[in-house]
Amino acid sequence: MSRIGERFLPHGYARLTLPAGRAILLHRRSAIVAVVLVIVTFGVAALTISTGAYELSPAGALRVFFGEGSTLDRFIVIDQRLPRATAALLVGASLGASGAIFQSVSRNPLGSPDIIGFTTGAATGGLVVILLVGTSTAATIMVGTILGGFATAAVVLAIAFRRGLTGDRLVLAGIAVAAMLAASNDYLISRASIEDAEAAKAWQYGSLNAISWPPLVPLAIVLVVVLPAALLVTRQLRVLELGDDAAAGVGLNLTRARTFTLAIGVCLAAIAVATAGPIGFLALAAPQLARSLARSPGVTVLASTVMGSLILVVADLVAQRLLSPFQIPVGLVTSALGGAYLVWMLTFAPSPQRRRPRLRIPRPKIGS
Amino acid sequence: MKNHIQGLAPDDVGVPSPFAGVLRGSVSRRRRLRIASALVVGVVAVIFLALLSLAVGSKDLGLNEVWTGLLAADGSRESIIIWQLRMPRTALAIIVGAALAVAGVLMQALTRNPLAEPGLLGVNAGAAFSVVLALSVFGATTIDEYLWFAFLGAGAAACFVYVISARRSLASDHARLVLAGAALTASLGACTAIITMFDADTFNSYRFWVIGSVADRGIDTALYILPFVAVGLIAAFVSGPSLNALALGDEQAKALGVRLSLVRVIAMSTITLLCGAATAAVGPIAFVGLVVPHLLRLIVGVDQRTLLVTSAVAGPVLVLAADIVGRIIQRPGELEVGIVTAFVGAPALIVILLRGRTR
After folding, report:
1. Count of C-beta atoms within a 10 Å radius of residue A241
2. pLDDT in tens, B259-285
3. Nearest-CA residue of chain B relative to A187?
4. Interface predicted TM-score of the whole assembly (ipTM), two decimals
5. Is any Cβ of chain B less than 8 angstroms from the Cβ of A280?
6. Which domains does chain A possess?
7. Given this model, what pLDDT does residue A313 score?
8. A346 and B169: CB-CB below 8 Å?
């Protein structure tokens, strides 16, 4: 482990020495892209916090953080805008990382929580709790969401899995199951009273409109624990992407690695959906956009995480301002844009059969 | 592709060119008998299901009650139930079933993709988006006002799907096209949802319309879309031979004297007409255009002419059956036809998938 990158440094990578005599390889361009994206993300978040329907100058918004400003200013900024921006950052980050892990493990850009039905299943689970069970507190909705997501993903994977996961089967099974669930969702909504239906539809698409500090606590805790793990499994993901035989050949315990990485991915997707509702297509689009920006050989978890945050923060800004003062649920913005992006990606990007990864032979580093 | 060519090779021995039977009507006698019997069975099934659809419901009627109610349109209880409530939905189910199934055959022939289906590929979603736009922005309320919007939306979506299906990355890969269609559906659905979000009235009527239901539509809706669907069906039947040639590939079709762009324009307009009318009348119903042609290919083969005619009969069978089942399984309430078809069609898609016939 500690000798990593000492003799051979792959093209485009840098060796990063860690304190305890350890070292990791870092894709240089990915790291730079991640840093740039972080800066842009915080810029957009700051813009979101300092503007809005309530008139407040950026300077005024800044003063609030130093304990000045009126009570109303403080309420608007600290209790309304800040949790919303934070939620967008965190939910986006976890969905981006989760998407990167899913796509990497399934070795398929389409293997994201949206396509395997996790998101639709989560929506059905939540709707069942809101409309049928009747006791819709935040906790029960969360439980219903997570159970629905897991059950659906399990069904889709069971249908699609036969001697490994191929892209076609996964995609078609996901579409078929999602179509059934969408019909059920429409049915549930049509049978509810108009008040319940209005409440459900606001939640169904994934929304940050009514977010406050308390629901963010579990999200933050999970992220603090799981996100570093997600960043550290990058190494195993790279090996997994080589294919089962090659990965086993270089000494990776396939079952353990796959279970561990997928558990991380599922955990991140579940907590994000439980916090903000099913936000469509983010987990699909973020890793692909990050990858094409970073020009990395595979999906990069770090850049995808930051990209997820950026997309959701921007989408949230759009959701707040587009039809202001009316607030669109942010999930609808990501679905509309993400669906269009997916159409574009499928249509104009070269098909995976034709895009073979170029083999880069590592150059021996002379003189070290 | 292999199946198409096998199916197109004429059965009768002695025809010199392998494609001689494609354009003219040379079908073997055994084949003709089979198609004829399938058609007869289909028509009998439609009549039987139509009578059943008049009889079954929250108030069940006996067969002789249906008969007297049908003949005597006096003000009696039975005749009101039959003429006011059940006749419109039965007629609508027949019209919409024929329209959607034939549109499915056309779409599959046009894109040369056995999984293409207007509902899955976003054509119905385009019509739905356009109708919701008409409802909320332009204040349309009746079908004669928003039908043209449905045509506009369906046409735009169909053109879009056709253009992207011709891209090389999608033309060769059947699942990718379906996914692109699903993504288009999702995107349009999100736009539709944004509109219904802040318009509570539109949302309230939309949530019932979006499921796809033939109930409570009134006979005038059925009568209003009938001419459009009839024109669409005739255009589809007429273009059958050219679609057969199209299945051989662009160059072969051209060599056989088919005017490619003309056929494509006709097929696209027909799909628009059929899907737009069906969606405007009953809401977006998916899977009819997928299930019916797939089943029929197993029975009558892949000749587009027979496929088109038989699906115009088999589509109504499916939609009528789905409507009746929806009325039975949740008494005294009803399950909308769109939900039943989704729960029939999605497993059918999975079966097609598991049998590995997507390529």
Report:
1. 17
2. 888 988 999 999 999 999 998 888 888
3. B211
4. 0.78
5. yes
6. 29-348 (1.10.3470.10)
7. 93
8. yes
